[in-house]
Amino acid sequence: MPPDPLFATDALTVRYGGVLANDRVTLTVDRGEIVGLIGPNGAGKTTLVDAVSGFAPATGAVTLAGRRLDGAGPHRRRAAGLARTWQAGELFTDLTVAQNLAVAIERPGWRTVVGDVFGRRRPDADGIQAALEMLGLGDAADRRPTELSLGQQKLVGVARALVGGTAMLLLDEPAAGLDTHESGQFGAELRRIAATGVGVLLIDHDMTLVLDVCDRVYVLDFGKVIASGPPAAIRDDPAVIAAYLGSAVAE
Amino acid sequence: MGEFLQFVFLGLSTGAVYAVLASSLVGVYAATGIVNFAQGSIALWAVWAVAALRADGTLVLPVGSVGLGSGPMDRVPAVAIGVASAVVWALLAHLLVFRPLRRAPVLGQVVASVGLMIFLQALVTLRFDTTSLQALPLLPAKVLTFAGAHVNVSDLVLAGAAVAVAALLWAYFRFTRPGIATRAGAEDERAARLMGLSPDRLAAVVWAITGGVCGLVAVLAAPTIGLDPTSYTFYVVPALAAALVGRLASIGLACAAGLLLGSFQTVILWLGTKSWWPGWAQAGLGDALPFVVVIVALFLLGGRIPSRGEVTETRLAAVTIPRLRPAPVALVLAAATAATLLTSGAWRFGVVTSAILTLLAMSLVLLTGYLGQISLATMAFAGTAGFALSKLTTSAHVPFPFSILISAMVATAVGVVVGIPALRIRGAQLAVVTLAAAIAVQSFVFSNPALTPFEGNLIRDPSLFGLSLAVRSGTDLTTARFALTVLVIVALLTLAVARLMAGATGRGFLAVRSNERAAAAAGINVAATKLLGFGLSAFLAGIGGCLIGYSRGQLSDASFTVLAGLTLLAMAYVGGITSVSGAIIAGLIGPLGVLYTFLTQTVEAGRYYQLIAAGGLLVTAVLNPLGLAGTTGHHARAWLSRRRRPPEAPPPGAAAPTGTEPAGTVPTSPEPSHAA
């Protein structure tokens, strides 16, 4: 029997009014594994990320390293090691890039109040710099998010999700806004991240990136998982081609 | 039963005013997206204008007055002119204040409408003879008997008028072409313009209608309710509570809630006369009611974290993350110390008051500027602490530093409770809740004879190690010892808050202010952070309240009025709500501070202070949405960097220092993205 996966959802279901946005979605991600999640627009990919990270009401189980997280609030899931990014970046525009990352490491509370007033606390500058450099953002630390390109802003979002003890990374279209070359670089960066033992669930429309970098791929359509397997198998799966990949394969 | 019904009907006049104000608030909100705190003040002017006309035919204008006829004016033309004056004020508010601010941050709009409210209120007090004028009867004085209750016909007429007004407003928005177009224009101004509509003109129609009906109902109700230079101004709070019951969207619900609230308040008044009613609840409960109504309504109807697809962007003034450099800090401290030691009497009292106000403004900088929570309850937190201080020093004999600390902790607890609604609501609606809370605290604690004796809450003078720190000594109005004590406390706390703002706590607060969803996803407990902000802010305000208490020797309901709280927020906003220097400016220009001392001592214009303050606020809010410190600081830095930078300097982004201290590396220019 294989060891427990790092991350698993079991029969995760999200219902918006009469619409089943996610219908009993069951998937797993192992340590150091990059798993793709693809599907046509409106298939429920972002809803799945919302449900897993605690932003959408869902039924079913979410497990991280054997710990049940369903029912916990978003910040608790993040503290447990489950981090996500956003399609729109959603950076803190009042803070610099480095401060955006610092926020995810030192969360405000009574302890930070005492530390700020009496101590000489400094954010973990090395950890922040390391995360930024892993994504090629080493010289952007002191700039404001609005001074960066949209693609770079999304990478800052990925870096922010990476710091603060992250074990599992949910990436919602991180490569949208990157050109082909940058997208290739991003693939390499993702591999380096996964090599540190972090599990990655990658949602993206860039098929080259997904099929190239992922170890396994799930395909979502109308809220249901319709196929899963290694990229090569997904590419040839007739159900997937019918639902989604038709045009991409024809290229 | 008959008696009960009688009181239910008796409350209908007040209820009718609430209902019409509430319907109008919903109407203005639907047309412009603005929560108009000044709606009651506009009606207040109409009431006084009619009273003056009917006394001797004088039409009082903001400047000067015109005699219309030789004697008292008849009721119909007087009412017509009074209502017209409300229409004019409403149109002026639209054209001069709210239209220029339609793309300003929510906080800017709230502050401007609060400024207008204070401005009109101050103007009424200055322009009208508030001691001898009275509201002469307008409606028939008949009494009906219904199920054993004596019912005034005037109460029924007013209630009927309120329902009619609500029905008319509802029909206007629902069925008429301009009404529907107004709603469309508020939703998408650009699309409306492309369709050839003019949202400005449509909004002006709504401002005029609502101003007129509010003026009319207040004028008709004044003979029953009585003439008072403030009451109608604050009727906006129960009206806002009623409007919030309808989520600022339903005119019918707002009207019904307003009428019910009015009746409920008189019924509570009646219950208070019963022998079985507890003595501590005899006063103030009716005023606390709107707060309860708002909380319940918001909790039943409110949504939590805004979900995907909703507009979550609340734009706020850009932030100056403080960087404590020794030289400027020492300079400010030296100046403050010199100002304390070189002055005496009233001037020193002004300096001390400014120092205390700086602390109160810091509490707003932290909560509103950094955490983005608009709070109008700061003075209520201060008042709570002052009240606790009185009880602790006179009854329990708690010695000086502990008395302040414990009192501030009490204020902290109240702050956390008032902060609970902030977990569900945001922006202008939160401002309404905190204002309702402030009024509840004021009436329930300070205007309640069971808690506050007639002579006020006495406070024993502080002393430390046998050394008296009393504010007065013999003929000395403000002792140097007391002034320096205040200065030390304020300086220490201000420095502590500045460190907080520059540290992890400040960054966390800014993250929550900028994007709650992303903050939660970054692992920040948004709810706990908001409560932390409210707690810290109330603690600072509480210390400030204790210092005010020690500086007066006794506290009454006049010490921490809701109006003073509103003026303070306004001043903090004018000064610059996101920076320490803004708080210092707010302290200097705040109520009873250095500017006030100057006006009373040097130019003898103290009674114009509120008007000048509110007028200055309106001008600054409209011209300068970033606040004085923000704008001047921005200009100063731009000027400095032009002078310092050699011609071949790298672009601003690359010029930022690359040290490890992040606090100092933040460009403080206003963000272009805020305007996007």
UniProtKB/TrEMBL annotation, chain B:
Entry-linked InterPro entries: ABC_transp_permease (IPR001851), BCAA_transport_permease (IPR052157), LivM-like (IPR043428)
List where Low complexity composition bias occurs: 655-668
Q: How does it sit in the membrane?
A: Multi-pass membrane protein
Enumerate the residue ranges of region (Disordered): 642-676
Cite the entry's keywords alphabetically: Amino-acid transport, Cell membrane, Membrane, Transmembrane, Transmembrane helix, Transport
- Output the Gene Ontology terms for molecular function: branched-chain amino acid transmembrane transporter activity
What name does UniProt use for this protein? ABC transporter permease
Keyword Transcription regulation among UniProt keywords:
no
Q: Membrane-spanning regions, if any?
A: 6-30, 42-64, 76-98, 110-128, 148-173, 202-226, 279-303, 324-343, 400-423, 430-451, 482-510, 531-550, 570-596, 608-628
Tell me the organism.
Answer: Frankia nepalensis
Tell me, which GO biological process terms does this entry list? amino acid transport
Q: Sorted alphabetically, which Pfam families does this protein's record hold? A: BPD_transp_2 (PF02653)
GO-annotated cellular components: plasma membrane
Tell me yes or no: is Isomerase among this UniProt entry's keywords.
Answer: no
Q: Which family does it belong to?
A: Belongs to the binding-protein-dependent transport system permease family. LivHM subfamily.
Q: Where in the cell is it found?
A: Cell membrane
